[in-house]
Amino acid sequence: MSSGELPRFKVNYLRFLQETQRPQIDVDRLERIIKHEVSLSVKLLSLLNSAAFGLSQQVTSLKRALLLLGEDRLRKWASVVVLAGLGEDQPSELAVTGLIRAQFCEFLSSAAGDTRLDYFLTGMLSILDALVGQPMEKALEGLFVPESVRKALLGECNSERSVLDLVLAYERGAWGDIAERAHALGLDEPDVTNAYRDAVSWANDVFGAGR
């Protein structure tokens, strides 16, 4: 994505997201990107050191964050910061929706016995097209994300898409569809309702901490 198609700050945020999703994180590359978008560093460190996150030690750098969190948790929280940054010129409700979807997907997949980070990323990136003002297929061009997440976001049937479809059905209040999709994942409707409530609470805490 060139700076002619998107505001430069969004290009930098997407570059940062791409680097965090590579199989092995290169912290030096991340720090070089941050030098071109200082707000990234400020937002990430502010969030990681907030009461909502609850770390016992202060995070002062990406290298420190990687040491304390490990790669998967750093990917997760870096993606949260990217979502907030991409949504700076959008209504705040859009960013909150992305956070809710991300955590809702993660809660549901965990309840169904699958704890991969891919579900969180699928929920979060489900609003990428709205954040960058492009169709989802174009928004994902050149962006490194796990192939299963890419397929789910483009509507292909897989486990990530099944969870996302349940989340979207809940948003619509499509109760018959919710029951059917929950059953297919081995979940009861109370499991879904509780996961949604917890996701909303979590998203509000995180959004408040990152403002």
Write up what this structure looks like:
- The protein has 211 residues and is mainly α.
- The chain has one domain (8-210): Hypothetical protein af1432 (Orthogonal Bundle), CATH 1.10.3210.
- It has helices spanning 8-20, 27-35, 38-48, 62-69, 71-86, 92-111, 118-125, 128-132, 136-139, 147-153, 159-172, 175-184, 189-210.
- The chain is globular and about 50 Å long.
Structural class, from secondary structure content? mainly alpha
What overall geometry do the principal axes of the alpha carbons give? Answer: globular
Percent range for β-strand residues: under 5%
Tell me roughly what share of residues is in helical segments.
55-70%
> Which residue ranges are poorly predicted, with pLDDT under 50 across at least 5 consecutive positions?
none
What is the name of the CATH architecture? Orthogonal Bundle
Average pLDDT, rounded to a whole number, is 88
CATH level 1 class label:
Mainly Alpha
Summary of the model, kept short:
The protein is mostly helical. It has 13 helices and no strands.
What is the fold's blueprint, element by element?
Elements (H helix, E strand, L loop, with lengths): L7 H13 L6 H9 L2 H11 L13 H8 L1 H16 L5 H20 L6 H8 L2 H5 L3 H4 L7 H7 L5 H14 L2 H10 L4 H22 L1
Helix pairs in contact: 1-2, 1-5, 3-5, 5-7, 6-7, 6-11, 6-13, 7-10, 7-11, 10-11, 11-12
